[in-house]
Amino acid sequence: MRGERLALYGGKSVRSVPFPERFLIGKEEKEAVNRLFDQAMATGAAIGYGGPEEEAFCQAFARFMGGGYADGVNSGTTALFVALRALDIEPFTEVIVTCLTDPGGMMPIVMNNCIPVIADTEPFSYNTGPAQIEKLITRYTRAIVVAHIAGEPCDMTGIMRIANQHKIPVIEDCAQAHGAKLRGRLVGTFGSLAAFSTMFGKHICTGGQGGIVYTRSQKLAVKARQMADRGKPFTLPPGTSNCVASLNFNLTEFQAAIGRVQVKKLPWIIRRRRSFVRKLRRAFQNFKTVSIPEPLPKSEPSYWFLRLRFHPEFATCDKTTFCQALVAEGMPVTASYFPMPHLSEWYRARRVFGTSGYPWSCPDYKGKKDWSFPCPNAIAGEKVLFRLSVFESWGESELRDIVKGFKKVEGFFRK
Ligand SMILES: Cc1ncc(COP(=O)(O)O)c(C=O)c1O
User: Which ligand 1 atom is the nearest neighbour of the CA of 149?
Assistant: First the structure.
């Protein structure tokens, strides 16, 4: 060990003031919401849902996606739930899903009474891949859910090849990946449907919560709308009654008004984050203890955060100590990104519908009852991968401080 005394051990930290917030919400969002208030107060009509604001928000988002259909819903979780329901999957069948995802990326499967079959990640990646998925396909598989974690695209070419071979629909969970591309094509346009989150921490928001179901199929778009709003018929003749049971997942006009403004900012947000990472990548080239792993070839991530890799073979400490030292220097680092819903209490205790153990315990489920999902790649990845925040509001001084902080910690712990 050598170099300057680390803040972790009583030295002066590189960054004494916190990194700036995102300033995601501005005057335009405030004015958009105020306009609705003004209208309501002038006309006396309360502010609703499914009106002109949502229409404009969804059209703007579909334009951003290069066409297709978008429906605003009240979270990324419900977007995935609705996407699954739009596929009309029979209960007690299997849905393959990536192991490393938000609970909201897996729970909609069991809430649809389907069995989640859990795919490992690719080695040292946060994303699953075609090889991990293919092994899990059975005659009961009815859908595949992949998530583009941290905004890095999954290998959709390989995944779609396998899915098409087996005629299994794919849902892309784009909660963390608005605007990411693979081979020039936006994620969310590969599968049958896509689920986006517009919760306040995501690339763009619709207030505190929100989501979007996206599809290029008009038929699936109608289905999704029905499933998002208590089975209202929408395109069926007037007088037709609600055609399927579902819940009410609508976005409000207030949320859509914010979202409409936010969609305009999305290309700028993506560009700023990409440019920041490009510069970081150059600056990190000579580090030994840490690297920025390359994303998939021909991909253009839309960074939600940046995946970093610790190299223990070049360090005198473990990943946890390394990250603690970075945090003490004021670096925007989180040592662990390991959301594995199937290791949680609800999954282990099969706690979904009372004490029934459904969907797994239902006699109508004919698949493997004792299937376990050890996910060795994800576990090995967790030992060396960690996350660095990257916000579009950050510029040269934040970049300088991050490089300085990492240099200091590398200097101290490098073998
Ligand atoms: C991959 C993934 N899927 C689904 C969700 C759920 O989205 P929401 O929080 O909007 O319900 C998230 C949220 O972080 C996510 O990261």
Answer: 1
Structure tokens at 28: 């335009």
Q: Is 147 in the pocket of ligand 1 (CB under 6 A)?
A: yes
Strand partners, 195: 173, 213
To the question of pTM greater than 0.85 for the whole model, the response is yes
Instruction: Judge contact between 79 and 195, C-beta under 8 A.
Output: yes
Long-range contact set of residues 28-34: C-beta below 8 Å, sequence gap at least 24: 28/261, 29/257, 29/258, 29/261, 29/262, 32/257, 32/258, 32/260, 32/261, 33/254, 33/257, 33/258
Kindly state the average pLDDT of the residues 333-346. Answer: 97
Tokens of 402: 């991050």
Give domain limits for the chain: 27-263
CB distance 211 to ligand 1 below 6 Å = yes
Q: What is 27-263's CATH topology?
A: Aspartate Aminotransferase; domain 2 (3.40.640)
Give yes or no for residue 341 CB within 6 A of ligand 1. no
E strands in 178-259: 181-182, 185-186, 193-197, 211-215
What's the 3-state SS for 168-190? CCEEEECCCCCCCEECCEECCCC
Mean pLDDT in the chain?
A: 97
Q: Name which residue sits closest to atom 10 of ligand 1, judged by CA.
A: 76
Span 76-116, pLDDT tens digits: 999 999 999 999 999 999 999 999 999 999 999 999 999 99
Omega of the bond leading into 359 within 30 degrees of 0 (cis): yes
Please name the residues in contact with 403: beta carbons below 8 A apart, sequence gap of 6 or more. 280, 283, 284
Q: Torsion over CA of 305, 282, 126 and 68, rounded to 10 degrees?
A: 70
Q: Is 176 in the pocket of ligand 1 (CB under 6 A)?
A: yes
Atom of ligand 1 nearest to the CA of 202: 14
Per-residue b or e along 340-371, where b marks 16 or more CB atoms closer than 10 Å to that residue's CB: bbbeeeebeeeebeeeeebbbeeeebeeeeee
Q: Number of C-alpha atoms within 13 angstroms, CB side, residue 29?
A: 18
Q: Which two tokens stand for residue 360?
A: 């797994």
Residue whose Cα lies nearest atom 14 of ligand 1: it is 102
DSSP 302: -
Tens digits of residue pLDDT in 20-45: 999 999 999 999 999 999 999 999 99
**Ligand 1 atom closest to Cα of residue 147:** 1
Distance CA 364, CA 150 (A): 37
